[in-house]
What we know:
Largest sheet: 2 strands, parallel
Distance between the termini: 29 Å
Order of helices and strands: HEHEEHEHH
Structural class: mainly alpha
Strand order of the largest sheet: 1-2
Number of strands: 4
Helix content: 40-55%
Amino acid sequence: MVAVTGQEPRLLRPPYGHLAGSTTAAAVRMGYQVVLWSQQMREGEFPDDPSGHARQIVADVQPGTILLAHDIGDHQRLVALHGLPEIIDQLRARGYQFVTVSQLLAVRQP
């Protein structure tokens, strides 16, 4: 990872959000901060309707939202990808900015 990004990873999103004891213990041992999400794409509710999915995501976003999205998968999962430009445009039109999770967490630190 360091060879690609120039930075040591410090954040961990556990697969499926499972916080088993071994995941938490490994994160602590490696100095990672565990981060989950507050909203996720709901592709299954909008098969073949990227615009409908985009409208629902935008309607549910709040300041500080961490949106879980995937960039690969079957046709159904790709509904989110096809609607991503619309999601981005609509959120920017509402005044939202896109930041990394590290940036978001730094803003929230006391």
